[in-house]
Design brief:
The chain is mainly α. The protein is 75% helix and 0% strand. InterPro entries: ABC2_TM, P-loop_NTPase.
C-alpha cells in the first residue's frame, strides 16, 4: 500500500493501521510506505526498511560521490580560469602600448600578434592541465576503488 494514512488525522490513521495489523495477523504479508508516522503507528510495524534496499542506498551514495567529484572539478577549473585570467591582465596592460606602436608603424597586424600571445601561454596551460589532471585522476581512482568495495 502506498501511504495508507495520507490525509488522515491521527485517530483515523491509527484505525487504518490497526486494520492493516489485523490483516498481517492472519498470516499475510503487507508492504506499505508511511511518511512521518506517529510513534504508535511506527511501533506497529514488525520489520522496517528505511529508504529501500542496501543496494539502492549504495547507488544513491555512489551518485552523491560522483556529484561531489564533479562539483569539486568544476570549482577547481573555475579557480584555474580565474587565476589564468588575472595573471594575464597585467601582461596585457603592459603590452597594449607596444602593440599600438607596432601596429601604427605597420610592423604587425592584430591576428599574428594575438596568435603569438596565445602560443606563448600554451606550455604554462599544458603544465597546469597535467598537474591538475594527474591529481584529479588519482583522487578519482581512489574514490572509484572505494565505491567498488562498498558495492560488494
Amino acid at each position: 500500500m502506498d501511504e495508507p494514512t495520507s490525509g488522515l488525522d491521527a485517530r483515523a490513521g491509527a484505525i487504518v493501521m490497526r486494520t492493516v495489523r489485523n490483516t498481517v495477523d492472519t498470516g499475510r504479508t503487507v508492504v506499505c510506505t508511511i511518511h512521518q508516522p506517529s510513534i504508535d503507528i511506527f511501533e506497529a510495524f514488525d520489520e522496517l526498511d528505511f529508504g529501500g534496499s542496501q543496494n539502492d542506498f549504495i547507488r544513491q551514495s555512489n551518485m552523491q560521490d560522483l556529484l561531489n567529484a564533479m562539483g569539486s572539478m568544476f570549482i577547481a577549473v573555475l579557480f584555474l580560469g580565474i587565476l589564468n585570467a588575472s595573471s594575464v591582465q597585467p601582461v596585457v596592460a603592459v603590452e597594449r602600448p607596444v602593440f599600438y606602436r607596432e601596429r601604427g608603424a605597420g610592423m604587425c597586424s592584430a591576428f599574428p600578434y594575438a596568435f603569438g600571445q596565445a602560443v606563448i601561454e600554451l606550455p604554462y596551460v599544458f603544465v597546469q592541465a597535467v598537474v591538475y589532471g594527474s591529481s584529479f585522476l588519482c583522487i578519482s581512482l581512489s574514490t572509484l576503488d572505494s565505491l567498488e568495495l562498498n558495492a560488494r
